[in-house]
Amino acid sequence: MDRKLLQYLVEYLVEEGKAHGCALPPAAADAAQGGLASASTEALWLAFRSLVNVRPPWPAPGEFLATQDELLQGLIAEAGVATLADTTPSPTDPRLRLWRGDITTLAADAIVNAANSGMTGCWAPLHYCIDNAIHTFAGVQLRAACANLMAAQGHPEPTSQAKVTDGYNLPARYVIHTVGPIANGRPTDTHRRQLAECYRACLDATAKAGLSSIAFCCISTGVFGFPQEEAASIAVATVRRWLNEHPDVPMTVVFNVFSETDESLYRPLLGL
């Protein structure tokens, strides 16, 4: 992690926030308290991430964007970029694959972001969710692109739709954003139908864009509270049905999981 790049970015973001009358998120305030020049690299990283998490989609100068892009692409390279060859194919259906890891390091044509109805990312500083991670590592360009889409739409994003943006600094070329159902641990038939529609909408968007690979996160199983086992079953069944209904569309589908628990749920569904 390049400390010089981080310090420049944090200094810019702190001054930008001050110019707009914004309070610093806690991690940034902590780093600035003793002077950014003496802050540790880790403290600067937490400050940077928290600042971009709360930054509105303001225009950014070219120097900032170039520095941010260099930092983020370097971090992703250090983490190690995964390709489809690193994923595990289903022995019963080679169109389907499983991969456990950080989706922000996966070089698929498209990755799926489990978004909220605002569609501009997670605004909670350092929140541990996929929406936060994808927006952080894609760069501030992603929030700006999403904000433009939402301004043109003029209303919150409905559940079970799909919007496509560039991936910017991510290894994935595109991000497909979908809003899953909020089940709160007690899914109804409507929630089940909506979850299946999320997968279909993303696959439709992928095919329409002429892409041949997509990596799905576990939609709605985080803070939206859809039970993991049932969600996995719906995901695999829906994807397999869509592929069977579109035999002329060449598509590789990766089910991306982050936890050992989720991996254990998907393996039997994929014959692994």
UniProtKB/TrEMBL annotation:
Molecular function (Gene Ontology), one example: metal ion binding
Any Pfam family: Macro
Keyword Mitochondrion belongs to the record: no
SUPFAM superfamilies: Macro domain-like
Reactions listed under catalytic activity: 4-O-(ADP-D-ribosyl)-L-aspartyl-[protein] + H2O = L-aspartyl-[protein] + ADP-D-ribose + H(+)
Family classification: Belongs to the MacroD-type family. Zn-Macro subfamily.
Official protein name in the record: Protein-ADP-ribose hydrolase
Species: Adlercreutzia equolifaciens subsp. celatus
